[in-house]
Specification:
With 622 residues, this protein is α+β, with helices and mostly antiparallel strands. It has twelve helices and 24 strands. It starts with a helix and ends with a strand.
Length: 622
C-alpha cells in the first residue's frame, strides 16, 4: 500500500456506520490530514461522544493510542476525558467525552476581545487544569484557542488533551510550550490576536524587531500586571522580572490570575450569555377560533339538528307575510351593554332648509359708535364722547356753518390712552440725555481735549507714558523641589511612571516618554491624551512654563488646580502649545495660582512603529 493510501481513512466511515458494534456515526464535523472528526452516538450508554478516526496503518496510529493512554491518567473536571481507544480492522479511533458550547476562537471572531477581568478568569481556569496535568507529567501539546471551550452554562472545558497533538503528527508535548501557550491565550483574550507557539487560525499578534508586541501596545486599557505577564513569557530575553512570582509554571500563572480576578462569581455565565450560535424555540399559545354570531332566522335549537326530516318536526303557526322595506344607507350603532347592533338610517324626506339670514341694519358711513354716556362732574362743561368730536352725527349741530362748543386744551378731561403720558415723559428724558452728552463732547473738543476730557498725547509719547505708568516686574524665577507623576486617567493609571521624575531633574540626558500607540491621540484614537502631573509643593502663582520635548510636532495643554486632577477635559486650560519644534514656552499673563500643574499631551509625534512623545525637561517659574 502506498504512503498516500495509508493516510486516507477507508471510505466505509460514513454517516450511519457503526464502529466496534457500539459507536454509530452521526455528523462529520471536520476532515483534514487523513483523519475525520465525528459526532457519534454510544449505543451502549446512550450518549453523544466525540470520535477521532484514522486508518489503522497510518503512521500516527501509535502516537494516537499512546496519547489517549496518557490523557486518561489526568483526572480533572475541565478536561474532556478519553472514554475509549482501539484499533479494529482498518480503523484506529479514540473516543472522547462530548462538550457543548463555543470555542475561544469563535468567541473572539464574533464578539471581539474580552474585558481584562473576564479574560484573566478564563485563562486562570485553563491554567488550573494544565497545572494538574503537569503534576502528573502530562502536557497538552496543542493548547490553542480552538481547544478551549466555554459551555453554555459558563464552565470552561479543554478539548483534545494529548490527542489533538498526536493527530497533527506531533510528539508528546512539552510543559514549557503549554506555559507559553497560556500566555498566548491571555494575549488573545485581551487583544484578539494569537501569540502562542501552537498553530491556530486566530490572526497572529503583531511583532516588532522579532518581539511580540505587548498587549498595551495593541489595545489600550490593558492593566499593567497582565501586560507584564504576557511580555515576560512571550519575550523572555532581556526582560526584567518586576515581581518575585513563579510565572514560569502553570500553577504560578493560575495563582497570579486568580489573585487579579478576585471573586469570580458569575463571570462564566456573563461571558456565555454573549456567545453566538444560541437557538431558542418559542411556542405560541393556540389562538381560539372566533365564530360569527348567527342570524336569528338561522338559529336551530340544540335538540333539533339541521338534517332532521320535516315529518319529525311539529307543525307550527304559519309565519306572517313580510313586507319588504327598501334598503337605506346608514351607519352601524353598537350597543355594548345589550350586545346588539342597529343602523342609523338615512332620512326618508329631505331636511327642511335653514331659515334665511336677516339683513343687518344700515348705518351711515361715518356714524359715531354707540357708547354709554359719561356723567359729567359739577365743575365740568359739556361732555363729548370719543368719536363725537370728529362728526356731528345725531347731535343736532350744524354740518359746517354752526359754531362748535369751544374746548380748552388745558382743561380737556376726555379719556386718555393709558401709559401715553409716561411714554412721552421717557422720550423727553432720552432726548435731554442725548443733548447733554453732545454738549459735553463739544465742550471737551473745544478745549483741545479728547471727547472724554483726557489730555491728548502724540504717538511718540504714547509708549513712554505707558511704560512709565506700568510698574516694572521682576523676571520669573524657576521653582525647585518639583515632583512629577505620570497621568493616564483613560487607561490603567500608569504611563511609564518610573521615568516621570526625569522630566523635572534638569538633566538633558534623561527624559520621560509615553508608550508607543498604533493610533494618534484625540477623539478618533483609543485615548484622548496622556501626560504628567507636577506637584509644586504648595499653591503658587505660575507665570511661565518652558518645555523641551521629545520629537516634533507635539500638542499639549496646561491645567493648574489646587487638588490632584481627575478628568482634565472638564477643566479650563491656562495655556496651550502647538509645538512645531522640540522647545516651547508658555507665558501666563494672569499668573494663575495652584499647586498641581498638569501637562496634558493631546497629539504625539509619529515614529517608525506608531506614535510616541515625551518631555526631556520642564521648568516652572513664577
Amino acid at each position: 500500500m502506498s504512503d498516500a493510501s495509508r493516510n486516507q481513512v477507508p471510505h466505509a466511515t460514513r454517516a450511519g456506520d457503526v464502529l466496534a458494534d457500539r459507536y454509530r456515526l452521526v455528523d462529520l464535523l471536520s476532515e483534514s490530514g487523513g483523519g475525520r472528526f465525528w459526532r457519534a452516538h454510544d449505543r451502549v450508554l446512550e450518549r453523544h461522544v466525540a470520535l477521532h478516526v484514522i486508518a489503522a496503518d497510518d503512521s500516527r496510529a501509535e502516537l494516537l493510542l499512546d496519547a489517549a493512554r496518557r490523557s486518561a491518567t489526568v483526572l480533572d473536571h475541565r478536561i474532556l476525558r478519553v472514554l475509549d481507544a482501539e484499533r479494529i480492522g482498518d480503523f484506529c479511533f479514540v473516543v472522547n467525552e462530548w462538550g457543548s458550547g463555543t470555542s475561544l476562537d469563535i468567541m473572539l471572531a464574533s464578539n471581539g476581545p474580552l474585558s481584562p477581568r473576564r479574560g484573566a478568569w478564563l485563562v486562570s481556569e485553563v491554567a488550573d487544569s494544565i497545572a494538574v496535568a503537569h503534576a502528573n507529567g502530562v502536557a497538552h501539546g496543542l493548547l490553542s484557542p480552538e481547544n478551549v471551550l466555554l459551555e453554555n452554562a459558563g464552565s470552561v472545558r479543554i478539548i483534545g488533551f494529548c490527542v489533538d497533538a498526536a493527530l497533527h503528527g506531533l510528539p508528546p508535548g512539552d510543559p514549557h510550550h503549554d506555559v507559553v501557550d497560556l500566555a498566548g491565550l491571555l494575549h488573545a483574550t485581551l487583544t484578539g490576536r494569537w501569540a502562542g507557539v501552537s498553530r491556530s487560525a486566530v490572526p497572529r499578534a503583531p511583532e516588532t524587531h522579532g518581539r511580540v508586541m505587548r498587549p498595551r501596545q495593541v489595545r489600550a486599557g490593558v492593566p499593567r500586571g497582565l501586560d507584564d505577564l504576557c511580555d515576560e513569557l512571550l519575550n523572555p530575553r532581556g526582560q526584567r522580572v518586576r515581581e518575585l512570582r513563579d510565572l514560569g509554571s502553570a500553577r504560578g500563572i493560575h495563582r497570579y490570575l486568580a489573585e487579579f480576578v478576585g471573586d469570580s462569581s458569575g463571570l462564566g455565565e456573563a461571558i456565555a450569555a454573549g456567545n453566538p450560535e444560541k437557538t431558542e424555540t418559542v411556542t405560541l399559545p393556540a389562538v381560539p377560533e372566533i365564530l360569527a354570531r348567527p342570524h336569528p332566522d338561522d338559529w336551530v335549537p340544540p335538540d333539533q339538528p339541521d338534517d332532521e326530516p320535516e315529518e319529525l318536526l311539529e307543525p307550527g303557526p304559519e309565519p306572517e307575510p313580510v313586507t319588504e322595506v327598501p334598503t337605506q344607507a346608514g351607519l352601524p350603532i353598537f350597543d355594548d351593554e345589550n350586545d346588539e347592533v342597529s343602523w342609523l338610517r338615512a332620512r326618508d324626506e329631505p331636511a327642511p332648509p335653514p331659515p334665511p339670514f336677516e339683513e343687518p341694519p344700515e348705518r351711515p358711513l361715518f356714524a359715531a359708535e354707540a357708547r354709554k354716556p359719561r356723567v359729567a362732574r359739577p365743575d365740568e362743561g359739556p361732555v363729548v364722547g370719543r368719536g363725537d368730536e370728529y362728526w356731528p352725527y345725531d347731535q343736532g349741530w350744524s354740518s359746517g356753518s354752526g359754531a362748535l362748543p369751544a374746548v380748552d386744551e388745558l382743561t380737556d378731561t376726555r379719556e386718555q390712552v393709558p401709559g401715553r403720558r409716561w411714554l412721552r415723559l421717557a422720550m423727553l428724558v432720552a432726548v435731554g440725555l442725548v443733548l447733554l452728552v453732545a454738549v459735553a463732547i463739544a465742550f471737551n473738543l473745544g478745549r483741545g481735549k479728547t471727547p472724554l476730557g483726557a489730555e491728548p498725547s502724540d504717538e511718540g509719547s504714547t509708549s513712554s507714558s505707558a511704560s512709565a505708568s506700568t510698574t516694572p516686574q521682576a523676571p520669573p524665577s524657576p521653582f525647585t523641589g518639583l515632583v512629577a507623576n505620570d497621568f493616564d486617567p483613560q487607561g490603567d493609571g500608569e504611563e511609564n511612571g518610573g521615568d516621570a521624575s526625569a522630566a523635572v531633574d534638569g538633566d538633558p540626558a534623561t527624559s520621560w516618554t509615553t508608550l508607543t500607540y498604533k493610533q494618534q491621540l484625540g477623539p478618533a484614537g483609543l485615548k484622548r491624551g496622556v501626560g504628567l502631573v507636577i506637584d509644586l509643593g504648595r499653591a503658587r502663582g505660575v507665570r511661565r512654563v518652558d518645555l523641551t520635548l521629545v520629537g516634533q510636532p507635539t500638542d499639549l495643554s496646561l491645567y493648574l488646580t489646587d487638588s490632584p486632577p481627575g478628568n482634565p477635559e472638564a477643566l479650563k486650560p491656562v495655556g496651550q502649545v502647538d509645538a512645531a519644534g522640540t522647545t516651547a514656552g508658555v507665558d501666563l499673563d494672569s499668573a494663575p495660582t495652584g499647586r498641581y500643574l498638569t501637562v496634558w499631551l493631546t497629539s504625539l509625534p509619529q515614529v517608525s512603529d506608531g506614535f510616541k512623545g515625551g518631555i526631556v525637561d520642564l521648568v516652572v517659574a513664577g
